[in-house]
Amino acid sequence: MSRTWLMSLLVLLGGPGCAYKLRLNTVPAGAEVRLPNGSSVVTPAEEVQLLWAPFNRQPVTVLAAGYRPLTVDLRRHEVRFGHYIRDTLLRPATLLGKTRGTVNLVLVPIHDHVGTWDADDVP
After folding, report:
1. Residues in Cβ contact with 101 at an 8 Å cutoff, skipping those fewer than 6 apart
2. Mean pLDDT score across all residues of the chain
């Protein structure tokens, strides 16, 4: 009985191809986000699909005029196996395509050299 349950769980977790859907927001809104698959979206992006696979990276690069570019590996921070299992078991609607959460990325404005910032310049 327990072996059947375990096999069913493995099929359930691996069956949908480990697609991981997220919402992406940036400050400021309207930034371009380059995804690991080579496509780009403009924020806010309501549904971005990434694929979870062991040991792969999920780098996204965020670009906006007047702001420093930002590259973040979502595999390291968000698209993690533990999150995938938790969401699958506790929020089964994610298997039917519901997003698994929101990632907020804050960009830093391009500015002069160190020491020229004041409190109003910090986002």
Report:
1. 22, 23, 78, 87
2. 77
Distance of CA 104 to the CA centre of its chain: 9
> Which run of H or of E encompasses 50?
strand 45-51
**What angle do helix axes 81-90 and 2-14 make, rounded to 10 degrees?**
110
Asked if residues 100 and 18 have their Cβ atoms less than 8 Å apart, the reply is no
Sign of the Cα torsion 10, 11, 12, 16 reads: positive
The architecture of the domain spanning 2-109 is Sandwich (2.60)
The span from the CA of 57 to the CA of 67, in Å, is 24
User: Amino acid letter at 31?
Assistant: A
Cβ-based neighbours of 25, under 8 Å, separated by 6 or more: 43, 44, 45, 102, 103, 104, 105
Give the residue-averaged pLDDT of 5-12: 53
Per-residue pLDDT reduced to its tens digit, 53-91: 667 788 899 999 999 999 998 876 665 666 667 767 777
Assigned token pair, 12: 């359930």
